[in-house]
Amino acid sequence: MIEYGINTIGKSLTAFDPVTIGFPSREYIGRTDHPGTILEDNVTLRSGSILYAHVTLTNDRYPPSGKPRLEGPIIGDYAAIGAAAVILPGVSIGRGAAVAAGSVVTHDVPAGMMAVGSPARIRPLPEEMKR
Length: 131
Fold this sequence. Notes:
Layout: E1 2-3, E2 6-9, E3 14-15, E4 20-23, E5 35-39, E6 44-45, E7 50-52, E8 56-57, E9 74-75, E10 80-81, E11 86-87, E12 92-93, E13 98-99, E14 104-105, E15 113-117, E16 120-124
Parallel strand pairs: 1-4, 2-5, 3-6, 4-7, 5-8, 6-9, 7-10, 8-11, 9-12, 10-13, 11-14, 13-15
Antiparallel strand pairs: 15-16
């Protein structure tokens, strides 16, 4: 796992390399003092996923209850998560999908699609973003 910035990583993280977290905006390239990514407990990151700065992956749908159970999101192979996005517990981001910066994702994002907005709506992935 490649880390940039100051990241917070919870227990039971499952990461399938290569994974990049906390990738900075242009003004922080080459620096290590920028806020990174917050990964709470029980998160799964699949191969090739990239999480940009200020991303938060949560694990408690009704904090601080821990009910029904703590369950982190699953980020699929080659998914890209834009800066300051928030992904709620139990949500799956499909293979090659993207989440736009600042989006709040409350439902699964199918493979090859994009989540945009707050709450996020599913849109086709722009051609130039396909990998």
